[in-house]
Specification:
There is one protein chain. Helices cover 39% and strands 23% of the residues. The protein contains 6 helices and 7 strands, in the order βαβαββαββαβαα. Strands 1, 2, 3, 4, 5, 6 and 7 form a 7-stranded mixed beta sheet that branches. The longest helix has 25 residues. The chain is elongated. 36% of the residues are buried.
Length: 211
């Protein structure tokens, strides 16, 4: 049986990327708060949140259904790192302007943590990984930043910009996975899905032999 895929995120960018990659899936938004722990670096923060989101949605689904349908739940979280500052989504317009002026004329890193939780019962299995992409941004004037923030595009984006949107004109080069900067490293996710599917198939075969 092909496992059901569930995306534990309300991000429209992640939904669009999964559709683009040919996946069929459901969406169940996680209620895990996106708060960073004291001293938590970007990779630990992003991977912890991705895991907690996936585990929370997996547990909620298992508790709400009597079936043990094989399921893979995907969690993800993206942050931007510059000068050791870990940036999530801006709190408001002033915070968005601050982030963009910090990134202006510099190179930063985008980190996405991904987690896949799977199984047909309890306890579930989990695999966690992270992707890092280096991004260079042109120097921006305060007027450009103000106009961009006023457009509303930066407000739900890590680091206050969307490479696939208007801000793409300011990014002359990246090193690494483009889709990671959008919000979901597709090749890494595909690898995690394939690994989980193989393990689920092995478990099913073992159960059949045992039965």
């Amino acid at each position: 049986m092909t496992p059901k895929i569930v995306l534990a995120s309300g991000s429209p960018r992640r939904r669009e990327l999964l559709v683009q990659a040919g996946y069929r899936f459901e969406v169940q938004v996680s209620s895990v708060p996106e708060s960073r722990g004291p001293g938590e670096d970007a990779i630990r923060f992003a991977t912890r949140l991705a895991r907690e989101k996936a585990e929370e949605v997996f547990a909620r689904r298992q508790g709400a259904t009597e079936t043990l349908e094989p399921t893979m739940v995907l969690g993800a979280d993206t942050v931007v790192v510059c000068d050791s500052e870990v940036m999530g989504k801006p709190a408001d317009a002033a915070d968005a302007k601050r982030m963009l002026l910090l990134l202006s004329g510099r190179t930063h890193h985008v980190v996405t943590g991904v987690a896949v939780v799977w199984g047909s019962g309890s306890p579930p299995a989990v695999e966690v990984a992270a992707e890092v992409t280096q991004v260079s941004m042109q120097t921006l004037s305060p007027e450009e930043v103000s106009r961009y923030v006023a457009s509303g595009e930066p407000m739900d984006k890590a680091g206050a910009y969307a490479i696939q949107g208007y801000a793409g004109r300011w990014i002359p080069r990246i090193s690494g996975c483009y889709f990671n900067v959008v919000g979901l490293p597709l090749a890494l996710v595909a690898s995690l899905f394939e690994g989980a599917e193989c393990r689920l198939a092995s478990q099913a075969a073992a159960q059949t032999l045992a039965g």
